[in-house]
Structure formats: structure tokens, C-alpha cells
Amino acid sequence: MANILVHTANESVTLTAQALGRLLDRGDGDAALLYLALLRRHGTVPPRSLAGELRWDRPRIEAAENTLRELGLVAPEAVLEPAEQKPEYQSADIIQRLTQEAEFAGLTAEVERRLGKKLTTPETGTLLGLYDYLGLPADVIYLLVCHCAERVARRYGEGRRPTLRQIEKEGYAWARRGIDNQAAASEYLRKYAERQGMLPQYMRVLGLGDRPPAASEERYLTAWQEMGFPPEAVALAYDKTVLKCHELKWPYCNGILKRWHEAGLHTLREIEERDRPVPQQQKSSVGRDMGWMREYIQRRDEGV
């Protein structure tokens, strides 16, 4: 009987009988294909980085990866940063996508116009990861790019442009928030603009004048807004911070606000009514009661 397989001169991969048996028993073609791709890379790359090579979106490759973990064919899942999770796209694949997919080619051209530069092949691969791996629609990605460009220009001045790495990082943050359609993106940008408009008020109550906040300061202010604290509540936390630390200590002020947030106190009225210190007379009474109780227990244990 003639041979059916066509043998090529390429380097072969070795699949153990045990691994083959597990894959056949599961009957998951995607898991088998991902395993073969990992073998070809000698298991030196994260499974999800092969999404570009396999031309799979994120849900598909994550499902195949989870199957391999269940079968014990890849190591237990580690917590990976987005930069480690992103797929690797070969130059030939990027060029093919640009020539064969009009939507992605159009998106690339619009991004280049917005950033005022020609994207390099690796940068185009980063853009493809947002489009292909994260599955963000082209219109959402364009809104993302415009948002990043405006944020960088506002912080560092006109003429400055975000890097594709910065855009990619923000894209992963959007994906985690479920911002994957135009309506969700528009709503997020609306709320973001509202928060930005409020920043000067927060800076003034913190005694920082009219200067724009630094990046680390903005992260605190944004978090406090998202917790639901108006400027006057932050002003009270600032007063308490200065009283204790004699200057603004951002972590200490943040600790006060987090404690109020956990207690469900956000408005100035709620805080003033429910976060009052225990009166000294009451503290003394409690101290006397506790002292009496300790003496009673001691006398009881001694049999007096």
C-alpha cells in the first residue's frame, strides 16, 4: 500500500504517546493544534502569544489553552501581564492582513494619520493585536487612539504623540472594563471628560493651586472620584492629613478616604454625622468598665 503522508524536509516535532492519548480522548482539535504549535516552539513561549500565528482571537486561544491545562499538558496558569499575553505576529502575516482585510487596512491608515507617522511593522502588529486578539472593533480602536493622543497632548503639550505601547496598555484596560463597542466607549469617554473637568476643583481643595496634576496625582484623584467623593469630602480628608502629618501625604489621605468609602460614607454630611471621634468622657468610662472586668476575671481565676 502506498504511503499516504507527505514527508517534508522540515524539522519534526515529537509527540509522546501519553500526550497523544489525552488529546485524542478529549477530541478538541484546537487544543491539539495549539499543542503542536507549542511543541514547534519547544514550549518556550506563552500559549497565548501564538494567537497571531494561529490567527485565532482571544476567546478561541484561551479556550484551547485551558483545555491543555486541564489535560496537564502545559504548566498551571500564571498571572501574566498584558505585555506577556499579547500574540506575536510575523511580518508576512501582517502584510497579508493589510492587503486582504480592507477594514484593518483602513484602520491602520486612519491611525497613521492621527499619529502623524508611518507605523513600523512591529507597531502595526501591536495594532493588529488590539483588532484581532482582543477583538476590539475598528471604530472602538480609533476612539482609543484619539483618546490616548489627546491625553498625551494635554499632559505633555501639543506635538507629543502616544506610543503604540501606551495605546496597547490602554486597550487592554478597556477590554478588562468591557469597553468593546462604540456605545460603551462613548459613555466611558463622556465620564472621563467629566472627571477631567473636575480635577481643578480637587487640586484647589488640596492646596495645590491651578496647576495640572502629575500622573501619580491624577491616579489618586480619579480613584477618589470613582469612589464617589466630592471635592468638599476630599478637603476634609486633606485637613485631617495635614493635622496629623503637617503636610499633604497622598497615601495617608488616600487611607482616610478608603476607610470612609468602606464605611459607606461619601458626602460631607454623612462623614460629619457618622465619623465622629469617641468623646473623652466616654473613653474614660469604657476604660473603667474594662478595668473592672479585668479585675473581676483575675479575682475569679485566683479563687478569691
Could you describe the 3D structure shown?
This protein has 16 helices and no strands. It has 304 residues and is mostly helical. The chain folds into three domains: 17-85; 91-180, no CATH class; 208-304, no CATH class. The longest helix has 24 residues, at 182-205. It has helices spanning 17-26, 29-40, 51-54, 58-70, 82-85, 91-100, 102-115, 121-133, 138-156, 164-177, 182-205, 215-227, 231-245, 250-262, 268-274, 280-301. Helix 9 runs parallel beside helix 11 (182-205). The protein is globular and about 85 Å long.
Search tags:
304 residues; mainly alpha; 3 domains; globular
Order of helices and strands: HHHHHHHHHHHHHHHH
Radius of gyration, in Å, reads 29 Å
- Percent helix, as a range, is 55-70%
For the report, how would you describe the main beta sheet? Answer: none
Anisotropy-based shape: globular
Task: Summarize the helices and strands and which ones pair or pack.
Blueprint: H1 17-26, H2 29-40, H3 51-54, H4 58-70, H5 82-85, H6 91-100, H7 102-115, H8 121-133, H9 138-156, H10 164-177, H11 182-205, H12 215-227, H13 231-245, H14 250-262, H15 268-274, H16 280-301
